[in-house]
Amino acid sequence: MGLPFLPVRGLIGTDYLRIRPDFQIIKNPYGEDDLVAIPAIKPDLLLMHAYKADRFGNVLTDKRESDPLLARASDRAIATAEEIVPHVEPEADKIIIPGIYIDAVIHLPGGAKPTACPGYYEIQDEEIRRYLQAAQTPETFRQYLEEFLA
Amino acid sequence: MSDLAYTPEELMAVLISREVRDGERIGVGTLSPVVAAGCILAHHTHAPNASLAIWRFKEYWPFTEGMKELFDLGQRGKVDLFFLSGAQIDRHGNTNLVAIGDYSQPKVRLPGGAGSATLSYTVPRIILFQVNHSKRTFVEKVDFITATNNPPPNVYRRGKFTKCITPLAILNFEGENPLLEAVNPGVSVQQVVENTGFTLVIPPNVKEAPPPTSEELQVLRTVVKEKIRAVYPQFSATAFKKP
């Protein structure tokens, strides 16, 4: 949206306002209640994984995810995709992010592993358990990363 | 074991389903398989006209703009019922999903709240749930208020948190002091008191929640189990008994 902040209803009375001094209570100029001004999050870069992408930067993703919003909020957006197709077409339960929001696409089958990419592969429970175990200490995690990237 | 034996998850799903009213618009957030099960059960029994928005469920997620749309719908006053949990819940009904211990040096960093601090203001009916009823979860005071049950005046707020559903009981937070609204079937008042870290008002003759019916369990173990499997495969494999 390119705006500096949005007014939000909620948060007042919670500890969020204690840890986020940048969240400011403002008067509703058109009503009686107090609102919270939340500054915009402006990511420098979005990295997302898509089902399909084409050479125009159009990408097909799951309609349940917030990827379209992230693409519109981020300064630059890179999408990896299971498949590169000549033209991304609409599909049931999926949504197209127009290429105008995407700066680069990369063909990367398996890019969501060890999590799931519905229709392509399931979550890898065993690998997630191994990851959780490895993430307990910096040493075991470093070792995990080395093995994972090998 | 009798035919009506059930798991704690099945019991909670049934208790949750009974809170759902036909025709309501209901939001269910992340990591809430037992609530998803309860709402889908209601949809297949007494609330066929309920409109469900259950995060990650293809069949029950009407939105194309992500979680934002559920929050927007709530802001427009169009969500009737929402469920919230907390790793800690205190005597006022405040919940904590941010950190155990001091926020800057947490003993445990929790996932954080999204609906906790927003939908809790815009949705008129909020029901709390906690799958683990213990002194660790029900505390005198939460370490971090993620959702408050007592916002200051001059703030838009549509309702109080009404009750909390657990494997042991239904606690009520509507009054000044937390009240034991009902014990679950076969659970004693003593058991609830021993597992709650704050003092409960115990009315005389506390009622016992009616146990799940065979119809509720049947639907839960067939249709609901199958639908839950797509999003929460591990929960689906362990939470339900065989039909």
Report on this structure.
The complex is a heterodimer of chains A (150) and B (243). Chain A is α/β, with parallel strands linked by helices and 150 residues long. Chain A has three domains: 5-39, no CATH class; 47-109, no CATH class; 112-150, no CATH class. Helices cover 22% and strands 29% of the residues of chain A. In chain A, the strands form two sheets. A five-stranded mixed β-sheet of chain A has the order 7-5-4-6-8, with helices on one face. In chain A, β4 and β5 form a beta hairpin. Chain A is extended, with a radius of gyration of 20 Å. Chain B has 243 residues and is of the alpha/beta class. Chain B has one domain (8-239): Glutaconate Coenzyme A-transferase. In chain B, strands 2-1-3-8-10-11-12-13 form an eight-stranded mixed β-sheet. A three-stranded mixed β-sheet of chain B has the order 5-4-9, with no helix packed on it. Chain B has a two-stranded antiparallel sheet with strand order 6-7. The model of chain B has no long low-confidence stretch (mean pLDDT 95). Chain A binds chain B through residues 8-16, 19, 32-35, 63-69, 93, 95, 123, 125, and chain B through 55-56, 58, 61, 63-68, 75, 98, 103, 116-122, 144-148, 150-152, 154-156, 233-234.
What descriptive keywords fit this protein?
heterodimer; A: 150 residues; alpha/beta; 3 domains; 5-stranded mixed sheet; 3-stranded antiparallel sheet; 4 helices; 29% strand; B: Glutaconate Coenzyme A-transferase; 7 helices
